Structure formats: C-alpha cells, structure tokens
Amino acid sequence: MILYTCAELSDFIAHQKLQGQTIGFVPTMGALHQGHLGLAAQAMEECTLVVVSIFVNPTQFNKAEDLVNYPRTLEADTELIHQLNPDILVFAPTAADLYGAQIQAKSYDFGPMATTMEGEFRPGHFDGVGTVVNLLLRAVSPDKAYFGEKDYQQLKIVEQLVAIEKLPVAIVPCPIARNAQGLALSSRNARLTAAQRSQATVVYKMLKKAQDCFEVQDIPAIQEMVKKAFDHEPQMTLEYFAIAPVDTLMPARSKIEKTSYRAFIAVIVSGVRLIDNMQLN
Ligand code: PAF
Fold first, then answer.
1. pLDDT tens-place string over residues 235-267
2. Which residue owns the Cα nearest ligand 1 atom 3?
3. Does residue 193 belong to any structural domain of this protein?
4. Is the CB of 116 under 6 A from ligand 1?
5. Model confidence, pTM
6. Does residue 232 have an active-site annotation?
7. CB of 151 closer than 6 A to ligand 1?
C-alpha cells in the first residue's frame, strides 16, 4: 500500500494502533538501496507494522543543484520495498502536504554538535533534517524509528530532536551497510560510474587505516596521513577528516582515556559528495 497524505496516514495508523499494532518507521529520501532495505527488514523483525517514507526534503539541501540532482525513483523504490515485504506501508507525501503553506526549516538549538563537520560544511542542514524528521515522526507516530549510522551526526541530532520535541519514540541506530569493497551504501553512489565507485573505496580504506593505527598514533599524525593520501587522488577532494568522541562529536586533537572515538570523513568524488565514518576503539 502507498499513501500520499498525512490525513490518510494518520487515519490508517490510528486504526492500526487500536488493533494493537506496534509501528516501526524508516524515513528515507528514496533512491533506495540495500542499506535502506536492511533498516526496513530490521523494523519488520521488531514491529508488527512498518512504514517507509519517501520524501526528498527541500529544506535540508544547502545547495540548490544538490536538491535538483537528487535521484527521484518512487516507482522503483515502491517495487523494491514491496518485494521485501508487500505489507510495508509506503508514505510519499508532497512538500505542501507535509509542511503546509510554509516550506521552511524551524530553527533548532542542537548545541555545538550541529556546527561541526556536516553542520560546518552544510549550513542549515540539521535544521532542515530536524524539521522534516519532527513532521514525519508526528505524522507516523511510530514506536520505533530506524536510522543508519552512516549519517552518524544526523543520528545524534535526531536523538536530541526527540528530547527537544518530547516525542514518544525509540530511536534505533543501525550499522553501516557496505558493498563488497567497503564503500558505504548511499543513494548518491548511483551518480558515480563503476570506475568512480571503485576509486571511492579509498574513503573506506583510509577510515580502516585510521582505525588500525588509532592506538599507536596521535590524532594529528593520523589526520596528516589521510590528508596526504587524498593529495594523491586528483579526482577527489577531501572536505574534512575528523576524529571525535562519540558523545560530543567535537573534533579532537588529542585522546582522552576511556573515551570512545569515531573518525568522520566527507569527500567529493567527481562532483558527488560522500560521507562515511568508523568506530576507532
Ligand atoms: O537520512 C536521510 O535520508 C534524510 O536525512 C532523512 C532522515 C530521511 C530526512 O530527510
């Protein structure tokens, strides 16, 4: 089944809840891949009714061309979801239906975490994400919502959003899905040729290297190593590489004992912006 309006969706969900269904929710912007399907499969295991939303959110793009170029494949996406399980409900609202008359982002205070890495390079991005996730969570009213760790900073921002908006939902983090070469699955990969996708695995390789030497090298040395590696990749531009504690996400220059760290990276590969991250210790 596919529903296109918040009104239809909330009627349907209210009815399902009265029948005792537990609702799992996977928000997406479409162009679905195995990573999304993995989230939906996990939701199917843990909930009795699963909703997958497909909505390319205009307020989270800080570059107009990125919004225009974002792949839109609703028919193929719906088919993929229903191949996985025909009982999954697809929700594909229009911007006017979801947002109402004003299609604009709310201004949130997510603290310093929202101004580093993705927040620094994509001003306004997290306000847009927070706004749409709040609207979607209110429309779907799920018991659990599933977010991939590829967008780790987004996941942490969504956890804050749920606290700020006092939404009664459990946020479930899900591990990054990768292809056989290690490239993190992303809708944006569809914009790369096979050769570019293969080049892009250097992103994963550098995260792996950072992980391998994290215990024995200091952070500036690891940063230097990654920077040098991308200096030798003319088709790729390293936007940032940062190592940060998982709870604050504030990029660090030195390590603190008994702290859990992740490495975060954003790279532009032949005009396509890719992000990835990896647990280091
Ligand atoms: O991760 C995404 O695909 C998007 O940021 C999300 C969470 C669906 C909000 O538009």
1. 999 999 999 999 999 999 999 999 999 999 999
2. 28
3. yes
4. no
5. 0.96
6. no
7. yes
